[in-house]
Amino acid sequence: MENSGSSSNDNNNTMIVNNVAQAISTALNWASTTDARQSALSFLDSMKAGGDIRTLANTLFVLVKKNWSSEIRLHALKMLQHLVRLRWEELSPEEHKNFANLSIDLMSEIADPCEDWALKSQTAALVAEIVRREGLDLWQEMFPSLVSLSSKGPIQAELVSMMLRWLPEDITVHNEDLEGDRRRLLLRRLTQSLPEILPLLYTLLERHFTAALNEAGRKQIDTAKMHAATVTATLNAVNAYAEWAPLTDLAKSGIINGCGFLLSAPDFRLHASEFFKLVSSRKRSVDASVSEIDQVMRDIFQKLMNISGEFLYRSGSNPGSVDEGEYEFAECICESMVSLGNFNLQSIAGDSAILPLYLEQMLGFFKNYKFAIHFQSLQFWMVLLRDLLSKPKISTHSAADSSAISGSGSGEAENSKKKTLSFVNDDFIGAMLDTSFPRMLKRDKILPATVLSLGALELWSDDFEDKGKFGQYRSRLLELIKFVASYKPLIAAAKVSEKIDTIIKSFLLSPAPTQDLAVMESMQLALENVVNAVFDRSNDIAKANAEVQFALCRTFEGLLQQFISLKWTEPALVEVLVHYLDAMGPFLKYFPDAAGSVINKLFELLTSLPLEKDTSTSSARHARLQTCTSFIRIAKAADQSILPHMKGIADTMSCLQREGRLLQGEHNLIGEAFLIMASSAGIQQQQEVLTWLLEPFSLQWTQLEWQDTYLSSPHGLVQLCSEAPVMWSIFHTVTFFERALKRSGVKKAHVNLENSSTSDSTPLNPMASHISWMLNPLLKLLRVVHSLWSPSISQALPGEIKAAMAMSDVERFSLLGEENPKLSKNPKEGYGEATESDIRNWIKGIRDSGYNVLGLSTTIGDSFFKTLDVHSVAVAIMENIQSMEFRHLRQVVHSILIPLVKHCPLDMRELWLEKLLHPLFVHVQQALSCSWSSLLQDGRAKVPDIHGILSGSDLKVEVMEETLLRDLTREMCSLLSVIASPPLNTGIPSFEQSGHVIRYDMSSVKSLDTVASCSLVGFLLKHEGLALPILRMCLEVFTWTDGEAVTKISPFCSAMVALSIVTNHKELIEYVSRDLFTSVIQGLALESNAIISSDLVAICREIFVYLCDRHPAPRQVLSSLPFITPHDLLAFEESLTKTSSPKEQKQHMKSLLLLATGNKLKALAAQKSVNIITNVSMRPRSSANAPESNVHDGEVIGLAAII
Questions:
Q1: What is the mean pLDDT of residues 275-296?
Q2: Fewest CB atoms less than 10 Å from the CB: which of 358, 621, 861, 1177?
């Protein structure tokens, strides 16, 4: 760069150098004060951004000299890189050349054994940055110098390799400063330069590997280390090109052969294996022939298989001779082999010599005793079998999932699949199952003796890194077992039966079998997946030949008889046995003769367990519940096979109840199984079963005496909580109502929301005749439960009840996102005095099931809406809404109001929706507004639930508060999304596909009253009491930094825009044109809304396109943006008229908004940063409340004035 000869300039330059050096030192010194560091950083930032670039460059080139500290030199190098990246255009072409020459000279200077590796790396990065900026011309000038430099010695060669490694950095790692066009240009230029780069890298590999060996042979260890460092640096550079350089170029340059050779070199094999991991996952290049690619890939297969064969032989014949380093290397090789199989198996699919050997080696990796190696190969077998066994017409896996063997046509692909499957023979399948069964165990869950019996097999441990969780691993293993069983059902059936038989026999001989249940439990999961796969509908065992059917039946019948013959009575063993019987459910569907013996065995197990009423943690109690639940599972799986046994089950239930040997909760579970059985027998059978099951409940539930005693006042509920038998009887009654509704209602998939506009549209439901007597007492119960939170009542409650109203540990852990403590899912029957925990569980259970009963009842239609008194429902739910905690409000919305809105008949909306939604909208809008204001201003949400949080650190309490706030916000937005759903708004047209900038045909404009008859959004807006709080919330939600809430509410906003277009409602048009338009733009200023930014821009587009000629507000709003000019607005409108494409119009709107706000709309700017890994920053939560755009000046009119 330029240098002045004057003394004054020299002094001035020296002062600048010292100032920059001092600033760097202060900024990096943590002993400096915060103010000093901040001041130093500000000074450096100002120099980088606006200082004289020539002065700064001269200064930095001085600071990289050896007489400065390593820290200052390193920072100076990074600042030079910054200048090249962001301010290069400020220099002239001659200065570019001088800059480049100085940088190359710097590489020569820094080629010293004493220099830090980081300095060498960043010097190389600087030169690479210059090449990227200047392009091919500079590279061609520079290349001879680099070749010459690399030949001077190992350190110089290492620097050149580093530079070559940095050169493609912007291709392999996205950088926010590099636009897509520049990245593509760089890729094209580098691709043109590959004929020079790749041979140079191969030369450096060969030269310095040979030199390292020779120097080591001469005992010149230091020199050998320098050559070895060069080899490592060159391999790193090679790996930077392995991801994208054409495979044929890599092969022709010799690099693939070179890296293959280095796989046998212990010092370099890990880096070489990284190269193969990258190229193994490469897809075919469009600019190379298939035969060329296949040849390269076959060569890679052969190299990796040679190494794999050596390892598998050694580890199989003499495991002790293989050290940990070799196992780590084998894991890398296995990973590359997996990638080859997942992405490029088609290259060897036609080779009958290589393919079976490859599959055999992958099986060897799967069987390996080292968990990490087995874990890698599991992914290959899952992908391969999924692809091979998939049906041709429904194979929709991604390239990674379906690349095993795809051909040019479906016939060729199917032939390839069959050929590959032919190599996966019975021995393969048997070995995979034999390996999978013991690997479903965790080492810390089994006894030492069991560990010894498994030999050297390395089982799962929670100490493993980068392997996820055990449950995820076991799920993948079970999925593999399922694939295997569907392919070879006879082998899978025989293997699983043989393994279970062995385990049961060892259990029968064990003095303490309950101490090693993990083995039995794990095989139950294996059996379940094998049975499910064998008897899966898509497999259709009925189509199998008679010999296969007979063999399968004989195997599973033998196993089932073994289960039935077991006389286990220990609760833990009973639970395991019950789960084994569950697993046999699909078998019973095809072989119904065995169903009766399974039902009898379940009742035998149930009655063998003691009926313990007084302990809440009884293992026998839990085993009894599991046994009863088994009836449900088998009823689902066995389908109509259970129908002949319904009378026997009913008689046994009645007998056990009369004898007092069946608790109510157990009765409910078996009753639910009865409902499932009946559902497969037709509507009449369902009705008869429901009547039989519900009649005893009806006789008790409808009695006024208990209602008057316990439900007439909060005092009655307090009394109820002291009478445990009655309390739990009520609980089980409500939960059975819930079960009955779930099992007897119309399936969700068959509910047509569009038909809900007619009162007689809901299909006949067998529960219809029971709704009235069920719900009236339930409404009284919910009303009195809600009253407990009323301040005037809660103050007078006993301490135990007050404590029970607080959150449970499970709820608190859930809010914090922490793992829940393992608690019983089934409340005890409880015949003693109820504890605080019992009361809390009871209240929560009544609320959960009671809300679900109401929500499910709405799906029945007239029986709910025309027989129930809406006033009773409103009082029960809304009377104490002001006292409800956010968690309970969210439940009300989710479980009751959303279903009610979906299914309310058109002619009942006026009566039901206004009565129920008005108090909700008014209260929730005010509560959310207050809490969000507190969160954004003070950093802490104010929620009523704080009184229910028992304990916790301040930070945890804040997290719980914010979670509660966001959950309720999102649920309310979900409700509005449902209200705006197309089936409930058939009168609203879609403007998304129309891009014509024309006045809406005013002759088609309707009144809001007219549209309200075929639009639920129109109905809501027509009623001022319903509309006002929601209109407020629609504006506020865009400032609440919750992208998920905005995502949910945007359909409602879109519906309002559409209504404003098709109606002549002046206040609505004013609101949409000004207030909503403004708020949506404000919402785009929040980065949290980036996920929904496209939809928000679409809303802006519709507002402007369709309303700008009907109201001045859209133009006024845009004109008020800080950086817009009248010319910009005119140009924008003109661009809209030139296209009828909504997509292009959205892009014009987005561009205008970015221009008009000075690129301050973070939601739009964030889209550019997708996949960006640099410059990540966080901002304080409170900053979200700062004014983000001045677009709402002036006086508001219309609905906004009321707001």
A1: 82
A2: 1177
